Amino acid sequence: MVTEDQVWQALRDVEDPEIPVISVVDLGVVRNVRVRNGHVHVEFTPTFLGCPALEVMRERMAEEIRALGAEPDVEVVLDDSWSTDRITPAGREKLRQAGFAPPTPRNATAPKLVQLQSDAFRCPYCGSTDTRLDNIFGPTACRSLRHCETCRQPFEQFKTI
Q1: What are the pLDDT digits (tens) for 38-89?
Q2: How far apart are CA 108 and CA 64, in angstroms?
Q3: Would you state the pLDDT for residue 107?
Q4: pLDDT tens by residue, 80-124
Q5: Rg of the chain over all Cα atoms, to the nearest angstrom
Q6: What is the pLDDT of residue 113?
Q7: What pTM was computed for the model?
């Protein structure tokens, strides 16, 4: 009989299709797992409603569950929006090691336009906060392009959502 722990562990092997260095679990899109009578129900919330990778993530999660010998039911839950605060500490470190600036955590005192703050993001290569926003529109809706003034490296920054 498949357990919830086994399902969570299997889902850690499902990479984000757009950024394969991070799993759907570390990205924080998997919200809940329930196992009953050989059926596994997974609830997940995509990073944004129009995410082009939604169906790919859904199918890859279902494949991992089938490989465990269970029947998958992967539900997209849209009643609560995903936030970058759901990225695990391990996920943030994986992003940094891959050359992405992890998003700045949200809090009540943070300015609304955190993407425009030059010192809000550390360069993933040298750690400097002396960075500038080159383009708020990156390769996907959740990323922007930045440049480090210290080491002169361009890098992608996750927007704080």
Answers
A1: 999 999 998 887 778 889 999 999 999 999 999 999 999 988 788 888 999 9
A2: 38
A3: 63
A4: 788 888 999 999 999 999 998 887 766 645 545 555 555 677 899
A5: 17
A6: 52
A7: 0.77
Structural contact between residues 12 and 29, judged by C-beta atoms closer than 8 angstroms: no
Local structure of 87: helix, strand or coil: coil
CB atoms closer than 10 angstroms to residue 101: 23
What are the chain's domains? 4-76 (3.30.300.130), 99-158 (no CATH)
Looking at this protein, which amino acid is placed at residue 114? V
Of 109, 50, 111, which Cα lies nearest the Cα of 81? 50
Task: Report the candidate in 36, 77, 41, 83 with the shortest Cα–Cα distance to residue 61.
Answer: 41
- For 39, the enclosing helix (H) or strand (E) is strand 39-44
> What is residue 96's three-state secondary structure?
helix
38 token code pair = 């050989």
C-alpha to C-alpha distance for 67 and 124, rounded to whole angstroms:
36
Distances (CA, A) of 4 to 10, 14, 25, 56, 152: 10, 16, 13, 22, 45
